[in-house]
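pls ignore typos typing on phone
magnesium ion + seq
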Amino acid sequence: MQYLKGVGPTLAEKLKAKGLETVEDLLFYPPFRYEDRTRFLPLRQIREGQSGVILAMVASTRTRTWRKGAQVLFEAELQDENGDRLLARWYNAKYLANEIVPGLRLALYGKVEYDFQAARTFLAHPEFEAVAGDGDAELTLDMGRIVPVYEAIGKVTPKQIRRFVQRAIEAAREIHDAMPEEILRRFRLPRIDKAVREVHDPPADLSVETLNQRRSPAHWRLIFEEFFWLEFGLLRKQREMKRTPGIAFELTDLIREKIKQMLPFKPTSAQKRALKQIAEDMAKPHPMNRLLQGDVGSGKTLVAAEAAVIAIENGYQVAILAPTELLATQHYLSLQHFFRRLSYPVVVMTGSQTAKEKAQVRKAVASGWAKVIVGTHALLEKNVEFDRLGLAIIDEQHRFGVLQRLFLRQKGMVPDVLVMTATPIPRTLALTIYGDLDVSVIDEMPPGRKGILTRHYSQQAIRAVWEAVGRELATGRQAYIIYPLVDDSEHSPDLKSAQRMFELHQQKVFPQYRVGLMHGQLPASEKDEVMERFKRHELDVLVSTTVVEVGLDVPNASVMVIENAEKFGLAQLHQLRGRVGRGAHASYCFLVTGKQTEVSEQRIRAMVESGDGFRLAEADLEIRGPGEFFGTRQSGLPQLRFAHVLKDREILEMARGEARSFLEREADSVRLREAERYLEDHWQRRYGLVQVG
Ligand code: ADP
Ligand code: MG
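k done
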């Protein structure tokens, strides 16, 4: 990049920090919008709200301060050939005084706004270009055509980026087109070379609307391109996995009997179906790579425990990875409970254990004595060695990177992997994130659930909430009350904290009940203890931060109060709500909000209207986009540039179909190997499709 004219080492460094490393990266940096700058407007015709290209001469300029000196304005009085005048104004642009001087001819593009104080229209912060000679403006990069607008990168302006992209296009002699020939032909796709050029420099016969909807042939090709290689990579990974030798577990009648012995209750038919799929995978002589998806409270743990029995009875160990210590402890306790009858030794390993404790656990794991090993990231440390790891169960996948999944796999004999998630994933997203996994869905709740009534209250009406909570407590139920902060913060005076509200609840609101406090800053042992006491019903009310978000299972708790609910994301609200409604009691979720935004109102409304995680995930995607819901980084969601998983779902499905038939058709041909090499060179890093096996 640094050898591109006008870039240089310093700027190259800045661009690199944002993921633009090579000239190729620049070629594939998409404009996020297009502006129609084909129309030239005489100043006489100009009205407030319009935008267009203006050709004029600078009559005079001045620099002045504004907002009590906080800002500097640079203004130029423009005059066109009819003698009409208009003021152009730039904010914080003192430096322009050297560039824009009286007598200079300019082509400008901007929006006409109205200044109430001065009672005049003006051109607000226009882009401009000096025009040579006195004839019509030549067609330049920034004027007289439909112009691509790029997202600024730090201090690098959209206009600068437009120049760099243009130079990159000029410098790039040829862009290699790796898309299989017959796909190009069938879909009549433009060549990659043409597509890249046209997306930055659209042909004159396309309207700005078509371009802004990303429906030009060039866009279609580039969107298809991204999806095709992504799906190709995922399918290839999946196929490779199916060829890698793995453990073929047997499921004998004796083992079936053991599973029955363990079960504390009758599995739902959805649980049975999931187990059947898992058992079939486990029986195959290749590693299982399966996602177990089920809404909060659907009973995934039970299915995981059944799978564990199969592995253990075949003489292997089972590792269970949890995203938080609290959840690891919780799994540890419930699995211990499940496996008591089968006398499997269960151990737990977390970051907060002492070195001595860890050493002990490590020994139990390495010797093969421990059959079930529950843990947090601590389990992934290099010095942890399994004797015979056969099955790895990963809970709440979206908190673990794909890499970790693989790392775990590399420790030993390629165990089977079962990923559990309560994050409801709409199909299109599931394809892009989990395209390499087989999926089982638990779409049925255990019997006897009474449902959760969700209500919205404003801060002013909070008294009604405490009364409702009091009524539930009086009948012997328990309640969670959630706050966004641990401690009061001067930075967020609007937010309530668990610490302060704990005291208030204990002393004023619920003095006759046993109130506990939980948050992430407590030492691990204390967290465990509080959780245990709440589980044993030695506490009636648990005041907490979101540390209880995932996994906690206390069926007697029937009330969830979330204060400052406007501050939480939809996925988080739904997870929190999932802490109640887990037993036979009718349950309540009270969302209490302070000052709302439009987006938070939409979220709260969605929560009140629906208890279905999948519906909520779709709703959230509509409200905020995929990155927000899953936290792009954490989820390992691929970084797509042109494509959008929601808006372009039809193209995604098509690309997946094409990738699949390409793989099947080509078997092991030279063309396939070429495509694979291209994938590795160009897309692997970005998509996190790290080589396996
Ligand atoms: P999640 O899918 O959120 O991890 P859990 O595995 O924690 O859900 O199960 C939620 C609750 O439902 C637990 O209390 C569990 O014991 C109970 N449960 C699970 N399966 C059944 C079943 N088939 N019948 C009755 N209760 C069940
Ligand atoms: Mg769970």
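The chain has 25 helices and 20 strands. Residues 265-268, 271, 294, 296-302, 422, 446, 553, 555, 582 surround adenosine-5'-diphosphate (ligand 1) (CB under 6 Å). more later
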